Amino acid sequence: MEDKLIAQLTRVSRVYMQGNIEVKAVDDLDLDIQEGEFSALCGPSGSGKTTILNMIGALDMPTSGTVCLEGRDLSKLSRRELSSLRQDRVGFVFQAYNLVPVLTAYENAEFVLALQNVPPRERKERVMAVLEEVGMADYNDRRPDELSGGQQQRIAIARAVVSEPAVVLADEPTANVDTEAADTILDLMEQLNREKGVTFLFSTHDQRVMSRARRLVSLRDGRLEADEIRD
Fold first, then answer.
1. How far is residue 103's CA from residue 86's CA, in Å, rounded to a whole number?
2. SS3 7
3. Which CATH architecture has domain 5-229?
4. Domain boundaries, the chain
5. pLDDT single digits (tens) 176-218
6. What pTM was computed for the model?
7. What is d(CA 210, CA 216) in angstroms, rounded to the nearest whole number?
8. Backbone dihedral region of 77: left (phi > 0), alpha (psi from -120 to 50 degrees) or beta?
9. pLDDT band at 1; cut points 50, 70, 90
10. Cα–Cα distances in Å, from 8 out to 30, 81, 193?
């Protein structure tokens, strides 16, 4: 079966202004992400990792070049279309978790499905199934401040995958958890990738993440330095 292209960056640059100084966060980059990948963008701070994730996730736009998600040129979509695409086709996992503090674990995981107008009974089935998969079904009524960092990140993963997006973009997902929790989170993501076919793209400088990735894309100064396939 032919590989499905999830994301494609073609001659992409992203320039920011810091005062009067022009900074190229991403510099003439070509990058393809295929369905089912478990890949990591790595490199020192300022190498462009998070900027690339933000552009693939339609949170930011390139200064030049083209970013496509599932064949759709993001620059040609309206704000409403971009919002729908982020909601329906992209899952986000952030290092700061970004859970809604007043909502329970269940409600945080359910949030995207509610925005998608999924019927209540189906929402409940899907949310409880994914909470079971991430080992958090027994904590479904807890709020984020009642959970450890590792538990909060597992809820964030549940929220990211419950809508069955095309890709999950994980920005430094192990940065704020201890070694044991990081290993548990990575085990979980690998399981979701292997058993459910969830496509993951990480940005990281964590050696634990890099050692697990089956493709390692190394960046420096916004440019591709190396692209290693380890399948």
1. 21
2. strand
3. 3-Layer(aba) Sandwich (3.40)
4. 5-229
5. 888 888 899 999 999 999 999 999 999 999 999 999 999 999 9
6. 0.93
7. 7
8. beta
9. very low
10. 8, 18, 20
